[in-house]
Amino acid sequence: MSNQKTASILWIALLLMLGLSGCVGDKAAGGGGADGQEVSAASDKVTIRFMHLWPASSSPQQNKLVNEIIDQYQSEHPNITIQQEVMENEQYKNKLKILSAANELPDVGITWAAGFMDPYVKGDLFAPLDDLLDSGLKDQFVPGATDAYAVQGKTYGLPLELNISPIYYNKAIFDKYNLKEPQTYDQFLDVIRTLNSKGVTPIALGNRDRWTGSIWYMYLADRIGGPETLKQAIDRTGSFENPALIQAAAEIQKLVDMNAFNKGFNGLSNEEGKTVFMKEQAAMFLAGTWEVPNFTSNPDVPQQFKDNVGFFKFPTFTGGKGDINSWVGGPGGGLFVAENSKVKDEAKKFVEYFISKWGADSVSTAGVVPATKVDTTVSDLPKLYIDLLDELNNASNLTLFADVQMKGNAAQTHLNMIQALFGKAVTPEQFVKEHEAALKQDE
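User: That's the sequence. What structure does it adopt?
Assistant: Structure tokens below.
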């Protein structure tokens, strides 16, 4: 191994092990690992290790689709075996850090764009995938969908989803108390007050995962300061100590003070927070369109609940610069191929196949909004799906999730400060100062 490569491995190990909490996550049946990686020259048998984050327990429709694609691929390629390792979002991210530090990434896995991907690219851990795009795959994507996965002209991930983040609400609860979808933030606060007065939890939130609370902060930053304020603070053409970003933090703590969220929200995972909404114990829930399958096509979810789910856009703020058609979202998880995979060519072929199959099938099977072009007129789709797809098509702006935009150190600071902000462990002024210092450090 060259000195340059050794230095890269050590660099990525040191960077990613900072704050690492440990190895978590269970393997699915036939799970992956370093064993069985070698290609047998005699039999030409190939094993591709695939790590993803759609467990059957929490993402049944996506899990079903993944297994259908894998079954089809193995049927068409009898010499190929796809070994899956499956875990929840946060467990997955921690496991990815551990494997990257040891230079033992799976052959194919899930990544996110921009700042999340940056240390893996710098450490030469992800393979460029431009050859797949140039061979015809590029035309299958929605224009611009792959841009956030490009670094210095090379593309290191291929997105599977495009997401926007609406506020889902329970129509039955709203109807019971004569509540309307709020268009302004003042109306939104009135809805919260009314629900509290009736003994109903206004908003379900699980903020132990922290990115959940980040979406709330990002929307307030957008509606108060406009979409460029947060973007410029992160890309360093602006400052995080912008008054609009301080005000957004103050508004978060006002929501906490008025008991807008379920009890114990800062100690609950996103899955636990979502369960509060899905058990109809809270009226609202802010999340991405990746939840649409649970609200439309998941056979394990009661139809009565699915019939009750509606959505509205994050309301406008009086005197603010934000547009109601500006969304927090962007490309969701995408597929990567490990640069050091011993079956890299075969892994790329699997990725190409997976992307092609995922597009239309993800709509009909899982109700996912894919990053590839889909003719929605050929499927009988739920109204919630169609309405959200229309909103995506008419978006005035799409701001990528803050922890994805930021580099490693700043992203961790952001997530830690989000939990501290919701827990009232920091003031709004301290919140922005910590961000500014971390972003400067990562420049």
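Residues 1-42 have pLDDT under 50 and may be disordered.
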